[in-house]
Amino acid sequence: MHRARSGGGSTVYRPPAAGAGAASRTAVRAAHARGGRYSGNVLRAGVAEAVGTFFLIYTGTATAAAGALGKSTAGTPPDSLAVALAFGLVLAALVGALGQVSGAHLNAAVTLGLAVTGKFPWRYVPAYLGFQLLGAVAGAGATWATFGNAARSRAHLGATVPAAGVSEVRAFIVEALITFLLVFVIMAVATDARVPAALAAPSIGFALVAAVLIGGGITGGAVNPDRALGPAIMSGTFTSLWLYLLAPIVGGIAAALLYSNVVAKAAAPTTDDGDPQTGESAGDRSLATAADIPR
C-alpha cells in the first residue's frame, strides 16, 4: 500500500500506479535486506564492544586486585600508578584494534554522548549498552577466576567506592569531571576530521590514565558506568553505585555537547599573510571580526 500525506497532515490512500506492484515487491525485498544487514552488523559490532569492554575491565580490575592482594610480577605489587596505566594502555590498544569495527566505545557514557550529539545512531544504543555491560560483568568474573575468592572477599574485584570521608556529592562531581575529560578528548580525536586518525588511540588512552590518576584516590576512578557496574554485580558491592552510573553519563554528555556545539566550530588562528596584533589572518581562520580589522 502506498501512502501519501495530505496538506492537512493526515495520511490518505493513493492507489498504486500501473507496474507499481513489482516495484513495491522490490522495495520490500530491499528493506528486508537492509534490515538483515542492520541486525547482522549490530550483532557483530556488539560482540566487538563486549570483547573490548571485557578486556578493559579485566585488565584494570585484575591489576587493582593484584595490588590489593600483594601479588607482584617482580618487586613491589602494583600501585595506583600501575592501575591507571593498566586501564589507559589497554584502552589505547583496544581503540586501535576495534575502532574500525565498532568505534570502540567500551563505555556507556561514550555511547550516549555520541548519540546525543548525532555522532552515533540511536537504534544501536540499546545493543551497545547491553553488550558493554555483558563484557564488564564477564571481565570482573575473569578477575575473580584469576585470583580466586580472595579477589572477591578482600579486593571486591576492584569495585569502586568513595574513599573514607568523601561525600557522595563530592564523589559525583569528581566522576563527572574525569569522565568529561575522557569524552571531550574522544570527541576531539574520534569525530573531528581535522585530527589525524593515528592520534586517536594514544590520546584516548592517555586521557583515561589522567582521569584515573585524578579520581583514583577519591572515587576509585571509574570514568565508566560499566567499569563500576560489572565488579559491583560480581562482588555484591553496591555502595553509592547510583553515582557511578549517573555521574559519568552527565559528564560525558556535557563534554560531547560542548565539543560538538561550540569547540568543534572553532579553528586555530594563523598568522599567514595576516597581522598577529590585530588578529587578522588568512582565509576564514581569522578570529578577528570585520570591525576589528583596520581598513
Description:
60% of the residues lie in helices and 2% in strands. With 295 residues, it is mainly alpha-helical. A hairpin with a 5-residue loop joins strand 1 (3-5) and strand 2 (11-13). Helix 1 (20-69) runs parallel beside helix 4. The radius of gyration is 24 Å and the shape is globular. Residues 1-18, 23-33 and 281-295 have low confidence and may be disordered.
Helical amount among residues, as a percent range? 55-70%
Major sheet details: 2 strands, antiparallel
CATH class identity: Mainly Alpha
Class computed from helices, strands and strand pairing:
mainly alpha
The secondary-structure element order is: EEHHHHHHHHH
Question: Span between N and C termini?
Answer: 64 Å
Gyration radius, rounded: 24 Å
Q: Can you summarize this structure?
A:
The protein is an all-alpha fold and 295 residues long.
Per-chain topology:
Elements lengths: L2 E3 L5 E3 L6 H50 L10 H19 L9 H9 L8 H23 L1 H5 L14 H24 L8 H16 L9 H11 L5 H21 L34
Antiparallel strand pairs: 1-2
What are the key terms here?
single chain; 295 residues; Glycerol uptake facilitator protein; 9 helices; 2 strands; disordered N terminus; disordered C terminus
